[in-house]
Amino acid sequence: MIEEKSPTSGAVPAIPPQKVTTMRTTKFEETVAGYLFLTPALIIFIVFLVIPLVIAVYISFTDWNGITPLRDDDAFETIGDDNYQQLLTQEGRRQTRFFTAVKNTTYYVIGVVPTQTLIALILAVIVNQKWLKARGTFRTIAYLPSITSSVVISIVFLWLFSRGGLVNAFIELLYPAYGDKAINWTDDSTGVFHWVLKQFGVTRADVGDWASEKHYGLRTWDWISGPSVTMLMIMILNTWTTIGTLMVIFLAALQNIPSYVYEAAAIDGANVWQIFRKVTVPLLKPTTFFVITLGLIGCFQVFDQVYIIGGGDATLTVAVLVYRNAFGTGSNMGLATATAMILFVIIFIFTVVQRRFFGGERANW
Amino acid sequence: MTTIASTQTQQARSGTRRMMNVAMPTIGYTVLVIFALIQILPFLFTISNSFKCLPAIQAYPQSLVPVPPMDVTCEPTIIDDTGRERKTVLPADETSKQVTFNPTLDGYREIFDQKLPRWLFNTAFVSLGVMFLRLLFDSLAGYSLARLKFPGNRIIFFFVLSLLMIPGIVLLLPRFILLKEIGLLNSYPALIIPFSASLFGVFLMKQFFESIPKELEEAAMVDGAGRFTIFFRLILPISTPAMTALAIFSFQGMWNEFLQVLLLVSSKSELWTLPLGLSFLRGEFGEQLRWHSFLAGSVITTLPLALIFFMFQRYFVEGVSYTGLKG
What we know:
The structure holds two protein chains of two kinds.
Chain A: H1 2-5, H2 17-59, H3 82-88, H4 93-127, H5 135-143, H6 150-160, H7 166-174, H8 192-199, E1 214-215, E2 218-219, H9 220-223, H10 229-254, H11 259-267, H12 272-283, H13 285-300, H14 304-309, H15 318-327, H16 333-358
Antiparallel strand pairs in A: 1-2
Helix pairs in contact in A: 3-4, 3-16, 4-10, 4-13, 4-15, 5-10, 13-16, 15-16
Chain B: H1 2-50, H2 54-57, E1 65-66, E2 77-79, E3 85-87, H3 92-95, E4 100-101, H4 106-113, H5 116-147, H6 153-163, H7 168-181, H8 188-192, H9 199-210, H10 214-222, H11 227-235, H12 240-256, H13 259-265, H14 274-285, H15 291-311, H16 313-326
Helix pairs in contact in B: 1-15, 4-15, 5-9, 5-12, 9-12, 10-11, 12-16, 14-15
């Protein structure tokens, strides 16, 4: 380049002034275009994400009932952290309801997240095997529930699990004596752990006073109830729905593991289990992290299925409580937004803790 | 001795290996077939029972094969002994035998009388609206973040990323309050505008645009094309895979959305979508669930998405795996 230019003159070649302006204009134009392109999306995000978040934080510190127009002078008063205290520390009906919801949601998450992750992983590994034929068909079938409306699935499961429904009929087919004590899946508030204990003749009266002591609005005995039967059915429903998506995610990650990795392990004499445990699982760690995060965020906010199927306190989840606090009898928007904010914090903490345990590296292959 | 021993172990090992070669597929296929049945049977039973009379739905064993006479009347009007007209219900064994049943469209008729056409229109209208706006807004924003160099680019990207952390449930009530205050509650815009751009979509499009070679745009720029021309004439036409994935996810998401719709339009039944309509029917029917019409409604709600799914399966799977890969 330099040699080329040197013959013309010894001086630094002057850049034509026209070009400078073009460059500057291009840069300016690019900035204008950059912001213009972003404007519609940014407006939507600011108006419908950022502003609502600010509103939510603010209202959670007020006693606004949600009905009186906000323009009215006496629409609300700021009451400090009163809503949060009513939910978390102050003994009373609201605290009991909140922790009932927390308990149910916790059982739900503990039941669903590991189950769906594990089953999806195992299925993905099987579908990824070389000898498998009709891979596409299995993937299609697995994914089908994921595209179906949660309301439709809830209705269909409500029907399948009804007292005289197909599920009970099938259990009776396998176990004829079942007919007399058929489970009423869609409306049974018995805790599953309570039910098991009862089979061994253990009730609250048998275990001593500790069971009747109240912590955070609930008796110890009620804390250890396990999910109710109806909740268990909702857990089965959601696991059934989600497995397909998770399997497809796992499968995509598996297909990115080069086959020589397996071949090398096989040459070293590793058996199927060892390959799964020592090769596949570690390589899938980032994907597993992603799948669990996705599961946690989704499960903590479970609403649709509970709203359609569940009714009373035995299926009350935090998301449903947010809705009921906002629109139920004696509704209070301040309390409802406070409930939502606490759920936000819970989800945030779980995601962070989870990241610690599983390592936060992003999947990059 | 050692050689013999080692040959023996080798034989034993190859024996186990051979056994594994047979056992693994057997176990694998068994697990997959059971799983596939569990996934598919609820759909098959829903479809077959949506064509049955109410009593036949409760009958066991479940018949799955439709045989003529087609379209029986489930609740025929008869004239009783006193000469009065009276509605009766065909008992289960009249319409359903061990494996066969006489199909009826009564369930579909009943659900169509329940404003279902209106719900169907609303669902389609809102889903398409959201889909087209998202395609435009998300790809514009994604392109800007991926390719345009301007001050603030990185900051805005991290801002968008951090918004992804906010769970939907937190935004639910304040969004409701906001729309109520500006008087948009119970209107079509309430179901479209707040959802017309998605963080996930911006993110997806940005990732995709970054995979397009820069030389393409540089060539166009040398020819004097501006950013708008480049985007609409050059980039969008070659972005079909990502755009299709985004279109499908947006459409499907809005078609199935329940909670937001419940909050934003539930007091105006002309604006109900299919999921909302079905959920309200559940409340209306109470314990006396008219399962045949419910199942018919379920089939109608699922069918359009199922068709799209079978047509564009590749994009569904690619889209899902894309999100999986990029975290």
